[in-house]
Amino acid sequence: MLRTLGLPQCSVVCRPRFLATLPSTSRGENNELNRTVIDGVAHVTSLNIMTRERSVVRLKLPELQRVRKIRMCQNRHETASQQCSLVVAQLPRRVATTCVAYHGAIFEVVNEFMGSLMNKDQFVKVRREFVVPEPAVAGLRNALISCERSPKQLQHEADQLSDILAQRRFPAPPSVVREARNKIKEMIKKQQEDEDISGLIKDDDDSRINYKLRNEVDKILKKRNFNWKPLDLETKEAAAAYALSRLAPNYAEIARVLDEFDGHSFSPSTVLDYGSGIGAGFWAVNERFGSGVKDYCMVDPSPVMTQFAMDIMRGDSGNLLFRNVSFRRHLVPSLRTKYDLVIAHRTLCELPSQESRLELVTSLWKRTNRFLVLIDSGLRDAFEALIEARDFLLCSGTQLHLEETRSLLQENDLMSDRIDAVLRDRDLSDFERFSLVRDMVPPEIQLPTALDPATVFAPCPHDLGCPKLGLSACTVPVRWRVIRADGRRSHREKSGSETGKFSFIVLEKALRHPQASAARILQVKYQGFPRFSDADVQQCYSLYY
Fold first, then answer.
1. Regarding beta strands 476-481 and 368-377, do their DSSP bridges make them parallel or antiparallel, or are they unpaired?
2. What is the distance between the alpha carbons of residues 177 and 191, in angstroms, rounded to a whole number?
3. Where are the beta strands (DSSP E) in 401-469?
4. What Rg, from alpha-carbon coordinates, does the chain have?
5. Which residues pair with 272 in a beta bridge?
């Protein structure tokens, strides 16, 4: 018997025969209810004991009229709880005992979720429009005057660059390019067979045919977004066009992500901006944290972009306005130099392969002391690249070095037969093994893992698989005040502002601890209240008697 248990703003497929206990760590899953979030904020996963199907209680509310919706959900929650209690009272004792356990566990999570949402201090206050600070605008104006081309011509190049960057995709893997090339070859060969030209040309002309075929394939691949190449910004005018195109949106995106720290006492003293470009990240961090940042390190391999970023930071006297900024072309080789906040804004897209992206993420994570911020465009492939980096750090943070773990525990006289059995059990996943050993040793013991443990700070309230990965890109809208050098309006501008979307992930170098944090709202689903007929009660009775 399958029934949909309708809870306020949540849905789950369930049976009355569930156990409200923690999940089993062995391969045999004896316990059927699992809170998939450690702090019990967002999701509850249930397993159907007959069909082995998994379902998730999804707790979601819209952003608008939040408090009103929360109160309405609380009323529905109380009504549903009363109706479930009446139904359970009609069931046999054995069935009722299990139903009460399951019902209580589900509504306990709902209560925690509602309580976290009613805490207004945890809401992220997002600005409706982001405006570049006046010193940055004045510095950009002074930097444009020193260019050889006129501001009007530079603005025209910036508009063309904006259209290109709006559709800039990640480089496709070699296997995908090879498959697409083979399909295009087959398509062209079929067209040639219709014209029957292959048999009329001598064997000496085979090389010419292959050359023509390769050219046709390359043309079609370029039209299908297989023409990735790194940005070429080697002149001051090219850097000026990029600044006119991306200074305001880059600033808005980074400032929007920094707003996620609202309600937290985090204030970095050292910041690393990898791929800093024209310095939009510095202006966002400086506005947010001010003089609390003692060292802001900007790393960019392009000397032209670095020089233009310095020109924007100069005042009327020609000197740098800020003394806490340093510029480098490469990262500091020593891993002892760590930063409280590391930012990589639209940098992963400039790397040619997945291996190089993960290598960069690893290098940045080793230099992170607290938070790592990854930001990229709102396209699908950018979102997938961020998920790859997220999953890589989460999995590497729970991958134990077995021999080093044994040596560490033996040195501290913590090794036991139980821990040894967990380390030897090959049926356990890396996460299960890490979690079990972590619970059996004191919290001050730092277990040796492939990388330092990571947890997702924003925008996700959990460290599990992304539920939107198979649906659409998880993007965030942002609005910024337009900066133009020609005094005209662009076709994307509306009331002096432009809007865009981007994806981001903020990772914290720490283990997740239970806390009452508000979950992110993704979608609203309401399935109604649970209703059981006499036939349902009789069928429940037949399962046990």
1. unpaired
2. 21
3. 455-458
4. 29
5. 297, 342
With beta carbons less than 8 A apart as the criterion, state whether 481 and 130 touch: yes
76-to-87, 125, 523 alpha-carbon distances in Å: 16, 28, 18
Provide the token pair at 250.
């880059």
CA distance 30 to 32: 6
Q: Are strands 33-34 and 43-47 parallel, antiparallel or unpaired?
A: antiparallel
- Domains of the chain plus CATH, in order, are 3-119+532-544 (no CATH), 126-169+233-397+451-515 (3.40.50.150), 172-227 (no CATH), 401-444 (no CATH)
d(CA 407, CA 411): 6
pLDDT per residue as tens, the chain (545 positions): 333 333 333 333 333 333 333 334 444 444 444 444 443 344 556 666 666 666 655 544 444 445 555 566 666 656 666 665 665 555 555 444 444 444 454 455 455 545 544 454 455 667 889 999 999 999 999 999 989 999 999 999 999 999 989 888 888 777 776 776 777 777 777 776 655 554 544 444 556 656 666 666 666 666 556 667 888 888 999 999 999 999 999 999 999 999 999 878 899 999 999 999 999 999 999 999 998 999 999 999 999 999 999 999 987 777 888 889 999 999 999 999 999 999 999 999 999 889 999 999 999 999 999 999 999 999 998 999 999 999 999 999 999 999 999 999 999 999 999 999 999 998 888 988 998 999 899 988 899 999 999 999 989 888 888 888 878 889 999 999 999 998 888 888 888 899 999 999 999 998 876 554 445 555 544 444 444 455 554 554 444 44
Contacts of 427 (CB under 8 A, 6+ apart): 26, 27
| Side chain identity, residue 375 | I
Cβ neighbors of 414 (< 8 A, separation 6 or more) are: 441, 442, 445
Q: Is the separation of the CB atoms in 405 and 436 below 8 Å?
A: no
195 φ, ψ to 5°?
-85, -15
The C-alpha angle with vertex 336 and arms to 331 and 341, in degrees rounded to 5, equals: 65
**Which parts of 146-271 fold into alpha helices (H)?**
151-166, 174-195, 206-223, 236-258
Rounded CA separation 265/263 (Å): 7
Q: Which of 339, 332, 385, 367 is nearest to 502 (CA)?
A: 385
Report yes or no: 308 and 140 within 8 Å, Cβ to Cβ. Answer: no
Query: Omega into 459 within 30° of 0, i.e. cis?
Result: yes
Give the side-chain half-sphere CA count within 13 A for 162: 26
The model's pTM is: 0.70
**Residue 48 burial (10 A CB sphere; 0-12, 13-18, 19+):** middle
Element housing 28 (H / E): none
Q: How many Cα atoms are found within 13 Å in the side-chain-facing hemisphere of 243?
A: 34
Cβ atoms within 10 Å, residue 259: 16
The CA distance from 192 to 243, in Å, is 48
